[in-house]
Amino acid sequence: MINEEIVADRDVDKLYAGMRGRHGVHNARANGYLYEGYFRREQQILFTLLNPQAGVLVDVACGSGLMVEPLINKRRLVVGLDFNADACFAAHNYGLNVVRGDAFGLPFTDSSVDEIVTCQFFNQQQPMAVRQFVVESARVLRPGGRVIMVWRNGTAWVHRLALACFSFLDRLRRLPSFPYENHSFERIETYAADVGLVVVSQAVSFPPFGWRSSATNSWLARIIGASNICVLEKSIR
Ligand SMILES: C[S@@+](CC[C@H](N)C(=O)[O-])C[C@H]1O[C@@H](n2cnc3c(N)ncnc32)[C@H](O)[C@@H]1O
Q1: Were both Cys, which of 16, 60, 103, 156 would link to 225 (CB 3.0–4.6 Å)?
Q2: Ligand 1 and 91: CB distance under 6 A
Q3: What's this model's pTM, rounded to 2 decimal places?
């Protein structure tokens, strides 16, 4: 099922083109990370959640493919999907199998994918777009397959502070600002329940410290829980 009202956002696409122009495609900052170390720690956290038995892994909105690049040749098939042509070329140059496509109309057949990851994609998307991504994930995942989602936690003080500082600096340098949307766990949970995806785990993390906690509403989470991580599983009927 594809919701015709939701299409890949070409304005956001242009903003990423600017980021790639400034930082180069091989720099995690071109994909919106503050610095390389943050990205690498987040990658380590993501990898602890992957199912080593999963043969077909798709990274949706993969950017230049840095996140799943270490998994190439370690899985039966690792596929990156992104809407941006330059990002796709960069990911292809890393040796990733790449599909240029739309996260809201995944170009895969029903029940054909073992595992999906998506990192730092949601915060520029409207709620209905994220809902559509969850719907599409449920369609293409095989029963028992999982989707692992990582996005910034707009309620964490550390993230709010970083966002405010960097938005201010962008304004000073007359750089365009990205749209920003916060998505709660409750929202994702509701979308998931509608399409038969079950929440396996939820956590917040502060990658620079390697810190992760399932107490997503604790006072510490509200201060340093910069990233949200949610794992959903398609039920075996
Ligand atoms: C912040 S980057 C994240 C890249 C990568 N996941 C990472 O963590 O390094 C967001 C990516 O989403 C892609 N994107 C935006 N809308 C999309 C859509 N509808 N379908 C596929 N990719 C999309 C952009 O082109 C961009 O490369």
Answers
A1: 156
A2: no
A3: 0.92
